[in-house]
Design a protein that fits this description.
Layout: E1 4-7, E2 22-25, E3 28-34, H1 49-66, E4 74-81, H2 87-96, E5 104-109, E6 119-126
Parallel strand pairs: 4-5
Antiparallel strand pairs: 1-2, 2-3, 3-6, 4-6
Helix pairs in contact: 1-2
Length: about 130
């Protein structure tokens, strides 16, 4: 049975609750949903959906980098948005992170996200 390892990346935004930023089990890395928190201040970044998505993707990249992975290692993502009317703008930023084959993805609209964020993204990556 694979061992569960808690991942604590140095350059990632700090968790805002009782959860791990990422957990590795075997050859899979499960990353908790990332909201647009500045890792230096722990505060939500200001700006529109594109600015927030950019920060979220940078936060995910920091987790992947810490484990020697890239966006090419991501096999599944889930995007949570408070307004699917902003989907195209979010998708433009999201799409720039994946060269070639993108991962499987689900996108859902939710009533609200932590700290008033407009977007949250979680990923599963493969080593």
């Amino acid at each position: 049975m694979p061992t569960k390892t808690i991942i604590r990346p140095k350059n990632a935004a700090p968790p805002i609750g009782p959860y791990s930023i990422a957990v590795r089990v075997g050859d899979l890395l499960f990353c908790s949903g990332q909201i647009p928190l500045d890792p230096q201040t722990g505060q939500l970044v200001a700006g529109d959906i594109q600015a927030q998505t950019e920060r979220v993707m940078e936060n995910i990249k920091a987790i992947l980098d810490d484990q020697g992975l890239t966006f090419a290692s991501v096999v599944k993502s889930t995007v949570f948005m408070t307004d699917l009317g902003q989907f195209a703008k979010m998708n433009e930023v999201y799409g720039r992170c994946f060269n070639g084959d993108a991962p499987a993805r689900s996108t859902v609209q939710v009533a609200g996200l932590p700290r008033g964020s407009n977007v949250e993204i979680e990923v599963i990556a493969h080593f």
